[in-house]
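LOG
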Amino acid sequence: MTALDVTRDAAVAHVTFSAPPMNIVTTDVFVELRDVWKALDKDPAVRVVVFRSGDPDFFLAHVDINMILEAPDDGRMPMQVNPFQRLCADVHFSSTVSIAEIAGRVGGGGSEFCASCDMRFGALGRTVVNQMEVALGILPGGGGTQWIPRLIGHGRALEMILGAEDIDAETAERWGYLNRALPADRLSAFVSEVAGRIAGFPPEAVALAKRSVGNAFTMPILDGLKQESALFAEAIRSPRARAALQGFLAAGGQTRDAELNIVELLRNL
């Protein structure tokens, strides 16, 4: 029985979690998620992947506790990236855009996975985040201590991780964990619109822009600026970029009336 359902809408892939009774990340769910991601990431026709849940109450609950209890221990201190961390890093550093549409409860490793995605959107009154590990005598081991502070800062990350309290959608949005918290009945349509819009832009520009933004968290600013300059030069050489720039001017770009409605102008290029 599959735990993930994959559908396509042009260049957007939707991955829906469906692993009763509550979308716990078992070994089988993890392996399927890893394999689905690898396949989608290698597909040049897929530019954006949206993760969502078929369960109205749970996005991803957490990693199966039995996996943790049964993990082999040879007494040594491992100093390498573990498989769950590797999956999250692959998602984060890919040129494919990843969006988590969180319309229910997410916790533990499920939250770590969401934090590694490029964007997260939640539902008012339904989205709840709980980083539960410290209350169980452990700590986030799927990358949460690295991804979450990059989203919400040191103090709030410690409140989330050490406190093990429920964080509602409004708070998660205010802290920066969620890009936006929307009414539940608007969430899917909004996320689909964002994903479709990004997927319709020149893919080289999307990939290079994502890479340059990522450099802000891994490079000193002067190095990041140099890389931005190099990536800009790479982008401008693309025939699609030239065509888009010329199309912008032909459609009325750099005129007052057109640029007062620039979103519509860009959508129609």
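LOG (cont.) second protein
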Amino acid sequence: MILLFVLCIIAVVGADTGEKEVLSYGLANKIIVVDAGHGGPDPGAVRGKYVEKDITLQVSNKLADYLSQAGALVIMIREDDRDLAEDSSSSRKRSDLKRRVEIANEAGADLYISIHTNADPSSRWSGAQTFYHSGSERSKVTAVMIQEELTRILGNTKRKAKPGTYYILSRTEMPSVIVEMGFISNPREAQQLSEDQYQSRLAYAVFSGIAKSEIRDYDEDIQDYPGW
């Protein structure tokens, strides 16, 4: 009932300051980890001048701003161009991922959001997509709601949230979602991903999906509480 009421208000106020205030309803004091994928010697996917590690950090900073303004306590895995590996051996990538997970688990975070761009040998593919661990219903709900907001706000993807077996998803102790913001291998989408206004829309879509999933979770907790 609370979720329905809040969504009705959102439909009336629109995507402006009023909407952001309504979406803040379930985010106060939530500890949310925002992980900008790759960094440092690991550039992620690269297509010409478009570099994944740069785009993920730019969008993650915007997402962190939205979440902080809504009252969430945001932990940024990285705030500059670096990775978190503790050595330079052949296991550097695993060391980096392991440390990212440790930061979230040690903080007792409520949610982990990992930001990436997709890539494929073919340039035909496009569209943002979310991934979640199949064993976590809470992760699935959040991924689905973020996906719905990406579809609604961007208007250029028909992809659906999917389960995945990624290291981050299976090792975090809290609900976690990977957001692939689009294909850097698609020239048109790569250009969009580098644009400040489009990045803001992406960040807002992820923020909105997170907020709506938290409102839904709060609504279910209230209904399960004795006496309600």
